[in-house]
Amino acid sequence: MKITLKSLGALKYAEFLPDDMTIICGGNNTGKTYAAYALYGFLYLWKKVVSISIQHEKITELLNEGVISINMQSYIDNMDIILQKACKEYSAQLPKIFAASADRLKDASFMISLDSKKHKIIDDYERRVGSVNKEQLSLTKTKGSLNLNVTLLTEQHQINFPHDIISQIIGEAIKDIIFGNYFPSPFIASAERTGAAIFRKELNFARNRLLKEMSQTDQNIDPIKLLFNNYQDYALPVEKDVDFIRQLESLSKKTGFLQKKHPELLEDFANIIGGKYTVTKDDELYFIPNKKHVKLTMDESSGSVRSLLDIGFYLKHSAKPGDILIIDEPELNLHPENQRKIARLFTRLVNIGIKIFITTHSDYIIKEINTLIMLNNDDAHIKNIIKNEGYSPQELINYNKIKVYIAEKTLIKVPENKRKTSCQTLSPANIDQKMGIEARSFDITIEEMNQIQDDIVWGAD
Asked: What secondary structure does DSSP assign to 215-246, as a single string?
């Protein structure tokens, strides 16, 4: 899967290929967050912007005969066209995704291209749809088949769904089958998460909009209508992150995949934050430090506790294989030791099937991932290092699972131009099994600092 961005914030033209672990590094105001937010927005909205039409005759046949079989070959053959239309629709929504004016992003575009030669649809699919009391539709696809079988589970006169809703349900199933292997379920931890942890109860966007409108008019207004108006106060990723943090009480009642299958990962996370989070039945959120009989509110807790709050609850209660965890600056408020630890947590998550996408300024995170790449080796002396330094085999990672990009201004070939153009882009970094990641945006700064210190110490000689 290749993503192409044009005229999006600082990024004038950029291409990147998300992998099991994707890292974007670079200086401030170079477009890293724009790339992360654009990706999240598409993964969150793709089912809404991808359009699959079902012939009206098929719905009539279903209601008359009780069963239909839809061959999906034509949809598969046209998946590139379907996706291009979806990307065009999504590109038109980018001002709303970023809560920006239409003029600012009028030339922005987001495009995804898939390798249709390697395309693999979902093998087994089963879904049942109905009301609270009774299932009404069954949608199934068996392994090796290209047919989606739709069956009525009740009499025609008992169907509660209008024709267009039935068509929509079938279309959703076809979308899942054709594109589901490409587009993982996303979770994002925005850079605003530290403040959201403190003000989570005050950040009720729907309520705040209603109060704002009421304060600006002395006329009778319809509160319900106001709540459904097309508002976008903050970028979509920020709003979804805040919404997640506001729902921690109900979320904390769920038992997640990691709790069941990999509790040791949650223990490692607790070691990073130095304690655990707890939510009371009254929706009061506390942090309990290790070996201390005290409960701290979020504003009493450290910045690192707040910055990892949403990530901690996601990992414990929501994360599952196939997801993608997107984090804008995971190093926020973290001591270098904990930046190393969270890098090791990321590789463990990748190795159990959870994709990671981060933007970062942290040389410590990059260097630790370098170490985990270089330690993925059977040499005898490497095995001794792994043992002596306390690394586990589950933390080691194959360099082929990682893509790293540097947000920078450089000469690149833009498709519509004959010559190379100097513009802000995402340059792929070299990654080697023996040497790790060549993250020159950090290396240049470190080399400059080392040179200055050498001059201070030795310059008089």
From this structure: HT--S---HHHHHTS---SS-HHHHHHHHHHH
How many of the other CB atoms lie within 10 Å of CB of 13? 21
Q: How confident is the model at residue 456 (pLDDT cuts 50, 70, 90)?
A: confident
Alpha helices (runs of H) in 290-379, residue ranges in sequence order: 303-307, 309-317, 336-351, 363-374
| Alpha-carbon gap, residue 438 to 428, rounded angstroms | 10
Question: Residue 76 and residue 455: Cα distance in Å, rounded?
Answer: 63
Distance between CA atoms of 32 and 153, rounded to whole angstroms?
A: 49
User: How far is the C-alpha of 243 from the C-alpha of 238, rounded, in Å?
Assistant: 9
Q: Exposed, middle or buried by CB within 10 Å (0-12, 13-18, 19+), for 384?
A: exposed
Phi, psi of 325 (to 5 degrees): -100, 115
Please check whether residue 158 is in contact with residue 296, taking contact to mean a CB–CB distance below 8 angstroms.
no
Largest CA distance in the chain: 96
User: Two tokens at 369?
Assistant: 């991932």
For residue 295, how many other CB atoms are within 10 A of its CB? 15
Query: How confident is the model at residue 224, as a pLDDT?
Result: 46
| CA 408/CA 404 separation, integer angstroms | 13
Sheet holding 402-413, edge to edge: 186-189, 324-328, 355-360, 21-26, 402-413, 420-428
DSSP secondary structure, 34-98, as one string: HHHHHHHHHHHHHHHHS-----HHHHHHHHHHSEEEEE-HHHHHTHHHHHHHHHHHHHHTHHHHT
For the entire predicted model, the pTM comes to: 0.89
* Nearest alpha carbon to residue 188 among 363, 304, 400, 35: 35
Mean predicted confidence (pLDDT) in 112-122: 82
Distance CA 177, CA 122 (A): 5
d(CA 415, CA 441): 26
Q: Span 59-72, mean pLDDT?
A: 93
Q: Which H or E element spans position 421?
A: strand 420-428
Two structure tokens written together for 205: 């966007």
Burial of 420 (0-12, 13-18, 19+ CB in 10 A): exposed
List, in order, residues 6 or more apart from 97 with CB less than 8 Å away: 37, 38, 41, 235, 236, 237
Residue whose structure tokens are 């030791």: 337
Domain locations in the chain?
1-51+71-114+320-461, 193-318
